[in-house]
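Action item from last week, closing it out:
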Amino acid sequence: MRFNFLVSSLLLLFSGFVFADETTGKRAATEERTPASSSKPTEEMIIHSQTVVAKKRGELESKLKRLGYKKFIRKKGRTIVRHDIAYRPTVMLDDDGWIDIRRSPIRFEPPGKAAERQSKLRYLWCLPPFTVMCVRVGGQTVSRRRMMTYKRRIGNRSRSYVRDWQEAIIGHAMDQRLTIDIPNMLDSIWTNGQTDGDDGPYLGSHKERRETIMHFWSNRSCIKEGAQAREVVRDFIVHEIQASNHPAGPDEIAQANASQRCENASLLPMTHDR
């Protein structure tokens, strides 16, 4: 009995070591196959970049409010921001990221402070014969030199906020290009032979489609944004074109790699390297 119990214990202990080694080996193999981090854009990145744009836009608007710009008027993709003082310049914020500071036009507002003008009853002061009291021409009477002083002051105090907002817009546009625009374009070229929607030339053969996509891959810029776009195209070539019934031959791959002008670019693998 003691002998059997000893043998059983040794077998159980040995099997435990074997199981641990196999588990560790499988885990290590899985970690080798799974990259630690991925720099490829995803839909989550687009949502995040949209949030960043909204945040930076809010910070810019808050800064303008602290400068006395309290009235925000939304109109045709842009926001008109006006100061409480009629002769101060008007700030225009476009959704595309540009800002324009210009002379304020003639304003028709009831008299009184900004908080008091929120009431519609204040417009009773604008009825004849008191209509003249509601016409505010301050922005048109300021001299050019003084107006430039006001513009420079606003520009200097809001420059960093504008820059952060514009950089967020550029980042969001790049994320959308990497995750939506470029993949849709590649799929349209490879599947339908359309290079620019319905208006572009039609590519009838798969050879022409491969050449077009590889030309697009090899001509991306060598900066960070170009490298990201190039990686998206490379993945499409490797996993879509080379896995299809019409893969590129070694000569096409070699020619595309030779056309690549960026030193740190990941070259296209040959057929036997896939």
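Closing note: The chain has three domains: 39-100+144-173, 104-141, 203-273.
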